Amino acid sequence: MRSFASDNNSGVHPLIMDSILQANTNHALGYGDDMWTLKAVKTLQEVFGEEYEPLFVFNGTGSNAVALQIVTRPFNSILCAETAHIYVDECGAPVKMTGCQIRPIATIDGKLTPELIQPYLHGFDDQHHSQLGVIYLSQCTELGTVYTVDELKAITKLAHQHSMYVHMDGARIANACAMLGLSLRELTVDCGIDILSFGGTKNGMIMGECVIPFSKELSKNAKFIRKQSAQLASKMRFLSCQFTAYLSDDLWLRNAQHANAMAQKLYAGLKDLPFVEFTQKLESNQLFLTMPRKIIDLMLQHYFFYFWNEANHEIRLVTSFDTTEEDIERFLSILNDNKHNF
Description:
Blueprint: H1 14-23, H2 35-48, E1 55-57, H3 60-70, E2 76-81, H4 85-88, H5 93-98, E3 101-105, H6 114-117, E4 131-138, H7 149-161, E5 165-170, H8 173-180, E6 195-199, E7 209-213, H9 216-219, H10 222-228, H11 237-247, H12 251-270, E8 277-278, E9 286-290, H13 293-300, E10 306-309, E11 314-318, H14 325-338
Parallel strand pairs: 2-3, 2-4, 4-5, 5-6
Antiparallel strand pairs: 1-7, 6-7, 8-9, 9-11, 10-11
């Protein structure tokens, strides 16, 4: 069954698969001392900056847990949107791994702003309070919205004024870059982001993420934190080689552009249907909308997708690098063929 449930449900891009097959040659040193990992590190440094040391990890939750441990102590607290992945979908792993309190902030679109953050900026140097240490941002957000450069700079400026770090969860950063027409560096380092969880699993990779601290200070103990967090791969080459392929010839960007374009095509076919109401702006590859429950149940017989808020009949549809125009057309055809039955 084809799926609009998540870009995690998509397959692996052939060029990524080829990179793994090519790395599966003879023996190689483990734990990152192999030529594929060294090449991947150099490739990432060409994108983000030669002074930065990327750390390859197994998965998204692991990358967030490692990144947050790098920028916190157990007496810190972490600010995030109430929809944030670290707060909603990681089974408390960031809290367990960091020892930090997570303080969620209500938002209407998944995006934090300086105005929303400001009321939480108190209790500094008070030994009775957890000390604010990090602002966590998802790019794209869990509601499919995208932070602009100006929005990111405003948040990082505020954070740095209070000696706080900003961690960006970039599980879907490629889709944000595609939407804004910006490079990976322009949307991270140049905006003042302190540490990045750089993901590709949702955009054509098989597995693996990368944590990139954007300072030598933060890199100092990062490799030890990765090891203690059970995120150091012995056969590192099979994680790292994917990033070289992913970043070569703008594969990462082309995949994201296609996913975004398929979302736009799906949106164009849905927006004029009288029983469809969108609950968030379409800015990436995620659509949030409501439909009558009978129609949702019908569509679930043909395509798998998730409820976002079942009580309100709100669903999420996600397109991927391998979503086809035929997928979109068939989905819309089934809807249109049955719209008069409800």
